[in-house]
Specification:
Length: 78
């Protein structure tokens, strides 16, 4: 019989209303129906750009070159 669980009972209402979507977020990652990671990569690159731009003043400020190198190494290992 269609629509019944293995034990013969009706499934709960929460399972009856499941709809198919093209993508969804799971643990902070975007999962797409075609298993492509293109959108996820774009999102992560955008986040990295945003983080770098917030720290831009450090790299273009009045700090010494050696100190800037140390800061870059510090930020890249996190």
């Amino acid at each position: 019989m269609a629509g019944l669980c293995e034990d013969g009972n009706e499934p709960p209402d929460s399972l009856k209303a499941i709809k198919q979507v093209d993508s969804f977020k799971y643990l902070g990652c975007t999962i797409s129906s075609n298993m492509s990671c293109r959108q996820e990569l774009k999102r992560r690159i955008a986040m990295a750009n945003e983080a770098f731009n917030r720290k831009r003043s450090i790299f273009y400020g009045p700090l010494e070159k050696e100190l800037k190198k140390i800061l870059v190494k510090c930020f890249m290992t996190k």
